[in-house]
Hints:
One of its GO terms (biological process) is cell wall organization. By secondary structure, this protein is mostly beta strands. The protein has one helix at about 95-105; strands at about 1-5, 10-15, 20-25, 30, 40-50, 65-70, 75, 85-90, 95, 110-115. The protein has one domain (about 1-115): L,D-transpeptidase catalytic domain-like, CATH 2.40.440.10. It has one helix and ten strands.
Amino acid sequence: xxxxxxxxxxxxxxxxxxxxxxxxxxxxxxxxxxxxxxxxxxxxxxxxxxxxxxxxxxxxxxxxxxxxxxxxxxxxxxxxxxxxxxxxxxxxxxxxxxxxxxxxxxxxxxxxxxxxx
Length: 117
């Protein structure tokens, strides 16, 4: 079973299969006023945004959104790659589009997501 562990202080998302680390990705997190919530969640949906390509309409969620069991929060791509590694979101976890697409290949609905400081 895959598990996502997020370390806010490290600006990293870790993908585990059981206890074995599979991948690690850089992330952006919530601003001071809109911090990313610490806790235990699950992925409840996955929504692709196919119009987020050069010349197409831009989505604020990059190419993919994975909603968390905490309403209004999710893991998603970004069309602003310079934001990765910074506190810039309204609480969501931002990833490079290629990284969120890669992550989505491993995880499904119900995947646990553990967010820690």
